[in-house]
Amino acid sequence: MVITPTYNPHYASCKVNNGQMTTLMNKIMMKHYEKNKVAEDFLQEIERKIFSLEIHFSKCFQTAIKLQLYGSMLNGFGTTNCDVDLSLVFAEGAPFWATSSDVVMRFVSKCLVDLPNVIDARYISAKVPIVRFRFQDSDIDIDISYNNMLALHNSYLLKQYTYWDQRRIPILGVFIKKWAKINHIGDASQGSLSSYAWIIMLLYYLQTLRPFGLIPILQESQSGTGPRMVHGWNVAYSLYVDPSHCSKLNGSVYDLFLGFLHFYANQFNFADLMVQVAYRRIQPKPFNWKKFAMAIEDPFEKTHNLAQGISEQMLTHIRSCMLNTISVFTNAEHISTFCSANDVNLMFIEESFNLNEELLGKLGEHLLSLCILPNPPPATRRHRHRSTSLANSLSNSTDNSSILV
């Protein structure tokens, strides 16, 4: 079934009827994904580092420690430069002195002091305390938190959604994260949206595609399974997958990207409605969220608004970025200008739709750079976390070494 304006106006109204440009833009987005996705050998190297950390922490804590991977590296939308998020759990029960996340994370910071190859380690006191560090042979930040089970289940839920259309959903998610970062609207600490929030927005959009959605609502599709409670929230969802379902809705990743931008820039009512992936019915903003410019509900932790730091000015800026990107990505003149500047025969492109790998990447970067608005995002008060180096952390923390002797 081909998507038409009759079924999906917010999708089809922005579709470009230029087969040459559509093919080229699809190749750009696919090229970006192939270049930046988490490769199997890279993931294996991360897993080896995790295993060495588990051994080291188990010796320090004198009990078995498990480090569970979550976040972008697990959920299907990871790239080679994204952070590594780990949740520390005690395999055989927590020690009697491990009374809070703060206490456990401060002891984790002590354990890192004598670990070779660890640099830039910091304890960060926040709603979820973490210890952040890097290995000398890697530019990747590693964040360790304690018993962060909701985040783990969120990651598995997002991964489950990618199984429904592995041909398009991961490519879309990775490209949207790149686009948001380039436009400086992909960092919650700067008053915009986290990459996780952008992925939730993408999934909600894909659920709304008519007549029956590109992906289902997995939390409403549970069959024969009861609630599964974690930290007081139900994390149950359907594990059933029907890959043939997505084939009923045609549309390239380029079409879907433009549809996503058009949906949120022109159609979605942020003043009254909530972005959420858990229910089929349209959900109004909860009364106590009316004060927020945007409402994006966490799939499991229903009281958590992923967009609570967004101001009206930032929402206006985000929508302006979307409208400008639609203009850039539907203007064939930008491709003509690029080809002329790089001595590329445009007729050759139109006939074969081919560019070499280097030029394809350059064209993608060129178009993304044109998406950046001349005016920067509105100034916002930064969300400040208390961050201390390991030296300060150790001097201010409880000495647990005597407990472990």
UniProtKB/TrEMBL annotation:
Alphabetically ordered keywords of this record: Magnesium, Metal-binding, Transferase
Cofactor: Mn(2+); Mg(2+)
Gene3D superfamilies (UniProt xref): 1.10.1410.10, Beta Polymerase, domain 2 (3.30.460.10)
This protein's record includes keyword Protein biosynthesis: no
InterPro entries in alphabetical order: MTPAP-like_central, NT_sf, PAP_assoc
Positions with biased composition (Low complexity): 388-405
GO molecular function: metal ion binding; poly(A) RNA polymerase activity; RNA uridylyltransferase activity
Record GO biological process: RNA 3'-end processing
UniProt key word Disulfide bond: no
Annotated ranges, domain PAP-associated: 255-304
Pfam families: MTPAP-like_central, PAP_assoc
UniProt domain Poly(A) RNA polymerase mitochondrial-like central palm: residue ranges: 26-162
Disordered: annotated segments: 378-405
Name this polypeptide is given: Uncharacterized protein
Upper classification of the organism: Eukaryota, Metazoa, Ecdysozoa, Nematoda, Chromadorea
